[in-house]
Known about the structure:
Number of domains of chain B: 2
Structural class of chain A: alpha+beta
Distance between the termini of chain A: 72 Å
Helix content of chain A: 40-55%
Largest interface: A-B, 72 and 83 residues
Shape of chain A: elongated
Mean pLDDT of chain A: 85
Oligomer: heterodimer
Order of helices and strands of chain B: HEHHHHHHEHHHHHHHH
Radius of gyration of chain B: 22 Å
Number of strands of chain B: 2
Strand order of the largest sheet of chain A: 2-1-3-4
Strand order of the largest sheet of chain B: 1-2
Helix content of chain B: 55-70%
Radius of gyration of chain A: 26 Å
Number of helices of chain A: 7
Largest sheet of chain B: 2 strands, antiparallel
Number of helices of chain B: 15
Amino acid sequence: MKSSKHEAHSRALQIPRLTRWIILAFGTFHGLMLIISIAPIYKAPHSSLLPALAPYHELTGTSQDWSLFHTIPTTHSLSSKMTIKYPDGRVEEKGPILPGMLSSSTEEHLRYSYMIERVVHAKRFEAYGKGWSDEVAELVKNSGGESFEIEIVTEATRHLFHIQKDGVYFKKLYNRFGTHGASSENY
Amino acid sequence: MEPPAKTTSGLEKIRNAYESLWFRPVDECQYALIRIAFSIVAFLNLCELWPYRHSFFSAEGMIPQKVAFAETQYFYLSLFGIFQSPVAVSVYFVFSALAIVCLAIGWKPRIAAFFVFLWLMSCSVRAPVAAFGWDSVLQCFSFLILVSPLGRGWKIPRKGFPPERIVLNYGLTLMRLQVLVIYLQAVTTRFQDPWWKNGEFFAYFLFSYHSIWSGPWIVENLALLKLITWATLVVEVSLPFLLLIPRTRWIGIILGCVFHLAIILASPNIAMFSLTMMMTYVVFLRTDDIVRLRSRFSPEHAD
């Protein structure tokens, strides 16, 4: 069969035949993987394609599941504090950022706010919130504390319709978890 | 009836068109430019992560290793599984920073690219809860850089452009496809979102902690903000096509840069996102652009 002009280029570049086939196979495979990753059939619930192809997507970072503002961001600000109760009745206020029990603010530490927002509001990251709480509990116990509570205050943007009606822009949402009182409380 | 020779010629055309996706010869400087642009953004991202390193990646931080391990679906491929103490995490950060510098200057670029890929994967596996979209974009680009020609002929310490060397374009094709997929994925998900569809997205965005322009003016200018939301969708739909078509690539690059610079102005705290996306536009440069750059900076190689 007549060779293609690209085969001629490959020969000019001294690319072995096997390398050509590897490039062709890999290029075709990876290209298909990229296209499949955004196909609705792939992301559909109970898709049989997902378990078969997800390992490759995970390995190459090509699962394309980034959340680049797919919907509205509703958090205007987010602050967090932690109170520790000691057996002698003393109450100490600290920050929940580890290590060091530091405070954080939305303006200064974007990634902390992003992480806290996710563990508080996204079900997918619940386990990380539990893990964080367990780490804090361990530290509090080691420092002689009896119980602790982390309070996350989110200023959430209200619906534009309501803002236009009464001029109030944000509502405060309180999420608390820890070991004061009940073992874990989140509201 | 068509003569058999014509049919062969048609198949030949299809074959040539498909093969040109992978085997078209290109100037290796195209890859060198991507390697350098990627390294600069990856280095900035590492610097941005540095203050958080102990909180997110060390055993004394907020994310227990066992949770990260349990939440990983298939492969827990993170070197933070080995480097767990705060000191070890800092050392790994410094090592990765050096790997990024090596990649930028073209010193042992394949080995450097491997360690940069490993670094980005280690971060995303160890602390996915703290990872932004741009971390994922950098990770999949690091994989494509690892498997592509690296533009070894252009090292920063050398003056001007090196003599032309020819390599294959398969890496460029995959990188272009990746950028196309990013925009298509963004647009398809946004078209399903009620806030994007009704045009209210941008108003909420300006009220969020990402924006420095929050204020009462937002509700007074909702009509304008709706137009901006829909204009954003139009830009995002058209960008991949403008970038892909050789004749309109510069319109796409300029439009994309203006769009992302506007995002930086409105929300400097996510500047890394815009820088990452602007970095990806380098893959749409063509041989003509390299020839022009060559003749501008290194006239002796213009021909």
